[in-house]
Design brief:
Helices cover 33% and strands 30% of the residues. By secondary structure, the protein is of the alpha+beta class. The chain folds into 2 domains: 3-157, Ribosomal Protein S5, domain 2; 165-281, GHMP kinase, C-terminal domain (Alpha-Beta Plaits, 2-Layer Sandwich), CATH 3.30.70. Strands 1, 2, 3, 4, 5, 6 and 8 form a 7-stranded mixed beta sheet that branches. A 4-stranded antiparallel beta sheet has the order 9-10-7-11, with helices on both faces. Strand 1 and strand 2 form a beta hairpin. Helix 6 runs antiparallel to helix 7 (207-213).
């Protein structure tokens, strides 16, 4: 039986602005997305019949509610393929952390099945299919550094912002993305991301200015209700981070570092009190 392994990289938001609530109930966004070397590894293996899913993680669903099943189902139906599939998810990305863990796994399955079943879909076609699974899936297919608009599906590739040192801290708090968006008071947000300035800093590869310019309007809800996140940000800055921000709707906080020694000290310090602390880099 044929078998393939695909890397599924995590993402962070270098900036996240919510422009308005749309008539369809979704929010109009403007975000700068960045992929990380932190990744899940997806193994896809052909079987005679059916769909089976395994993982090293007990925290993710292993049934049809998992986005990797939706990725398999949508491709199999569209191309009338009745081959069985077994998928193993080696989970390294913190669960429900604002790092697109589920979306990136689904994106990897779309890419893997495209190769395994010789469908010859190009990146744009894969991204169109991915959007039917989730708003972050098209970006996870594209990867790298990108400006995202709409609900996250209108993507513009940016200059690479790779090889920057990133420290991730996730305290293991359960955050409802729907709750965060529903409790966002757009009229009261005074300090919004300066997206155009941020795009210039990325174009010139200025790590310090990117780090200083980082903003996420969802912090006004998540951090207000979970002050431990503010303490993590403060600790990162205190230990030499050029800037620190919450990714997505949280609860993951990340810091951009210039000095690997500073990052290692901060990692050791945070591990005393925070559930998951990981050092990684941008790709």
């Amino acid at each position: 039986m044929k078998k393939i392994k695909i890397d599924a990289h995590a993402k962070i938001n270098l900036s996240l602005d919510v422009l308005k609530r749309r008539e369809d109930g979704y929010h109009e966004l403007e975000m700068i997305m960045q992929q990380l070397s932190l990744k899940d590894i997806i193994t896809i293996e052909e079987r005679d019949l059916g769909f089976t899913l395994e993982s090293n993680s007990r925290e993710i669903p292993l049934d049809t509610s998992n986005l990797v099943y939706k990725a398999y189902a949508i491709i199999a139906k569209r191309f009338n393929i009745n081959k069985g599939i077994h998928i193993y998810i080696e989970k390294n990305i913190p669960i429900a952390g604002g790092l697109a863990g589920g979306s990136t796994d689904a994106a990897a399955v779309l890419k893997g099945l495209n190769t395994l079943w010789k469908l010859n879909l190009n990146e744009e076609q894969l991204m169109d299919i991915g959007l039917k699974i989730g708003a972050d899936v098209p970006y996870c297919i594209m990867g790298g550094t990108a400006l995202a608009k709409g609900v996250g599906e209108k993507l513009t590739k940016l200059n690479s912002f790779s090889d920057r040192l990133i420290l991730i801290a996730n305290p293991g708090i359960n955050i409802s993305t729907a709750y965060v968006y529903n409790n966002l008071n757009l009229d009261k947000i005074a300090d919004r991301p300066q997206t155009q300035a941020m795009l210039k800093h990325i174009e010139y590869g200025d790590t310090e200015l990117v780090a200083k310019e980082m903003k996420n309007v969802l912090e006004t809800v998540t951090i207000k209700e979970n002050p431990v996140l503010s303490k993590i940000k403060d600790q990162m800055i205190m230990h030499g981070a050029l800037g620190s921000l919450m990714s997505g709707s949280g609860p993951t906080i990340f810091g951009i570092f210039k000095d690997p020694v500073d990052m290692t000290k901060c990692e050791k310090n945070l591990k005393h009190s925070i559930k998951t602390v990981l050092s990684t880099k941008t790709v």
